Amino acid sequence: MPITEPPAAAPAADYDDAPTRAGIYAPRTVGERIADRASAGIGSWKFIIIQTFLVIVWVIANVAGFVLRWDPYPFILLNLMFSVQAAYTGPILLLAGNRQAAKDRALAERDDAEIGLLLKLQQEQCSVLALVKDAQTKHTEILDMLRSQGTQGPAVVRSQHGASGPNGHNGGSSAL
Predict the structure, then answer these.
(1) Each residue of 75-134: pLDDT tens digit?
(2) Cis peptide upstream of residue 7 (ω within 30 degrees of 0)
(3) Can you tell me the distance from the alpha carbon of 23 to that of 161, in angstroms, rounded to the nearest whole number?
(4) How many CA atoms lie within 13 A of 144 on its CB side?
């Protein structure tokens, strides 16, 4: 069986090029901070409840108002306020959504790079384990051969080495 080299270290260039988690949450611009805060407020139950309460108060004040009816039915001023609110909240929510999508995309790329690195490491471990298993099999074969020679006795060992002993000497001590 040919001797195989252990695999080379996996290049970490793909992993190093991926954005870091700290880079993903890098400082934001003023506009990004405003968009994030506004979208967090607009997308909350607190905002919905407060806006519903204010609309109810607006309608009651204008329908039941005896002295000052600044926006009589069909509530044109209220509709105008909703239109202005929608004109601003739509782009703000899109900005915040785009920022979140960019963060999610960067995290997904980072996770893909981490998974790729883990896969390479796992493949390297499998190849190293295969080498260890191969070495273990060879060592077991060598041990079995040595054990079989040991059970045949010293006569077999002597016969394999000829009339002389295992060191090439004929039984006596050698003088230097």
Answers:
(1) 899 999 999 999 988 888 888 888 889 888 989 999 999 999 999 999 999 999 999 999
(2) no
(3) 72
(4) 6
Distance of alpha carbon 92 from alpha carbon 36, whole angstroms: 8
Closest CA to 41 of 101, 103, 104, 85: 85
Q: Across the chain, what does the average pLDDT equal? A: 79
Does this model's pTM top 0.70? My answer is no
CB 121 within 8 Å of CB 10? yes
Exposed/middle/buried for residue 96 (C-beta within 10 Å: 0-12, 13-18, 19+) = buried
Are residues 43 and 93 in contact, defined by beta-carbon separation less than 8 angstroms? yes
Q: Which two tokens stand for residue 108?
A: 């997904």
Pair of tokens at residue 144: 């079995």
Residue 12 near residue 117 (C-beta atoms within 8 A):
yes
Q: How far apart are CA 19 and CA 34, in angstroms?
A: 24
Report domain extents, the chain: 13-119
pLDDT in tens, 13-22: 455 565 566 5
